[in-house]
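[INFO] parsing input record for Glutaredoxin family protein
[DEBUG] input buffer:
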Amino acid sequence: MSPLFRRKTADVAAAAADPRAPHERLVTLIRKPGCHLCDDAQAVIEKVCGDLSVPWEEKDITQDPRLHDAYWEQIPVVLVDGEQHTFWRVDEERLRKALTE
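[DEBUG] output buffer:
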């Protein structure tokens, strides 16, 4: 069996173990304009969410005083299903694991 087939089989099995379908998950990127770390985080989120068919959204802290007060020192901040997953740097494998386990 090729390694690619084994990986896809493992990904499907991991997704099946989570009672939530990928489309029921939601990744939120809290960012601000002109932030290079935010751009880096977005690239990782786009890749992982695209691979797993997980929807994602972005929110701008300059447009929401509540988000600004909560996260201004930590941006970019990534939420998975409304819970803080990480901030500053997004690790692709850690995000993938959080969405498939």
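[INFO] The chain is about 50% helix and 20% strand.
[INFO] shutting down worker
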